[in-house]
Amino acid sequence: MKVLRQIFNNLPIRPIKQNWRCLSSLPVIDVKVDKKGIATLNMNKPPVNVLSTDMLLMLKSEIKELEKNKCRGLILTSANKSVFSAGLDLKELYRPDEQRLREYYALFQETWLAWYGAEMPTAALINGHAPAGGCVISTCCDYRVMLPNFTIGVNEVQFGVIIPIYVQASVSSVLPKRIAEIALTQGKLYTSAEAYQVGFVDELADTKQQGLDKCLKYLAAFEKVTPKAATLTKLQFRAGDLEEFHRERKRDLDKFVKNVTDEETQQVIGEYVESLHNKQKK
Asked: What is the phi/psi pair of residue 209, to 5°?
């Protein structure tokens, strides 16, 4: 429990600043904070908000900055009207330099940790398709609202990639264990309606604005509680997952690199990359 105690000891106890307007405007994300201290982070990396190195760096650094400034809540969404995030950058996975692959995946691990272990309440407004890593980031959030006619799921097994233990943990914190096992082993993508039915998302919304309103309503409930108490309680729920992540982090990194660089996996990824290339040429 050493890691958990360290997190607890660093929790903010001072009141939030109330005079923010726009925190930053960055190449791949845009963050705005309202007068109540609620931040909205729009991923904005055309065409599909791939989790490239720069995107991961920004997602990790921005949530840390918001925590540092005592933000009261965070909504994660997309500036893209049809894609929330397409997930990991296949260019980093196909025929990779091993050291670069290690650095890239370690950054994904750090981003997962920053969001799953976030000190503030978080909500994801899934206003587009959210496969693979896009789904993973949303499961790190405390609440999910999804727009209709999109899909969500962790489908890496379709590319021969083993689902990491910590990803299983965040998905299992959202779905019942049996449904999570089926979803991850089959690489299943759920429609918005199916996602709501099984519990992948907490609410559905017809428009982005309606979804934002629902996320804000969820976050507003925390105005009635002490932020530190709410955070400590949340992290107690996630303590086992966070401890296991730190315990298995190096082993998971080695396993991922071995799995991705395996020739069979590379062939599957290569075939998918080629199919995308052919679609673009048509």
From this structure: -65, -40
Question: Coil, helix or strand for 130?
Answer: strand
**Rg of the chain in Å (alpha carbons):** 18
43-94 tens-digit pLDDT = 999 999 999 999 999 999 999 999 999 899 999 999 999 999 999 999 999 9
Per-residue pLDDT at 16 exceeds 70: no
Which residue type sits at 220?
A
Task: Determine the residue type at 128.
Answer: G
Q: How far apart are CA 145 and CA 280, in angstroms?
A: 31
**H-helix segments, 151-226:** 165-172, 177-186, 192-198, 208-220
pLDDT of residue 281: 63
Q: What is the pLDDT of residue 273?
A: 84
Token output for 276: 């995308």
Which tokens belong to 220? 């507003």
With a CB cutoff of 8 Å and minimum separation 6, the contacts of 7 are 117, 119, 235, 242
5 DSSP β-pair partners: none
Nearest to 129 by CA among 40, 212, 50: 50
